[in-house]
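Researcher: Here's a chain I'd like modeled. Treat it as a single chain, no partners, no ligands.
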Amino acid sequence: MESNTSPPAASPSIPDLIVEAWRLAAKSALPALPWLVLLSLMGGFYKWALNTGAGGTMLTLAALVVLFLAGVQASLTIYRAMIPDAKGAFMALMHMNLAIYLAFFFVSFFIFFFVGIFGVVMLQLSGLVDLAAEGADQQIPAALAGMMSTPYGWALSIVYATGLGGLAFLALRLLLTGAATVKTGRVMVFRTWRWTKGDAVRFGTASLATHVLPFLVGYVANLAIVSLAGQGEIALFATGVTGLLLQAPFILAGHGLAVAALRAVNPASDIA
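Model: Modeled as a single isolated chain. Structure tokens:
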């Protein structure tokens, strides 16, 4: 007897994820444009305040807070344009972002604290500098540069790359948090962890076309603008603005991949 149960839908391939991410990016570009412009303007203001010191630490911190809030609103607008039945609000997405930043801060601190200690040990073992000697701190940069072409430097590079790989893996396992938070209206952080089990390589490969490539293109383009604009106060503000404007494709496609990935794992019963 034939069963009426339909077979499960095939999981989207890497090219399918990339195409869907960029389709969603194009769909959300116009609704998000005003907030992306505001985000870029605040990026310029923050860069100007940070580099000039005008207004002191309080102004720089205030600019950073406004930059963060504009980013949350831009992200919310993008996700709502991509997810028609989204229930999420500003506060839920803001809390999710703060939780993610805090998690990455602590994980990064412990990873790079260990890498730093390991680097000190390798530098001492290399014999290129005696860290206990007087004036050793002035010799460290040259000794570190010389060490990198030795087995001690290779070991340090491997440990450093492993730390970065761990952070990248964490980011991929938490890829769905923003999209899931906006879809459900609830703060979703590590609750999405199980949904990405076994998909880190697939999502990571797709992210080369949605995150890495557009980010590098925008970054290199802004470096060229910076070299032409110089370091005057107006140039600092302008290149801060262009630095974020040129990352609009990265921002949009990154959100697009998160939504496409959320649909791919299809945890409908978990987030309804």
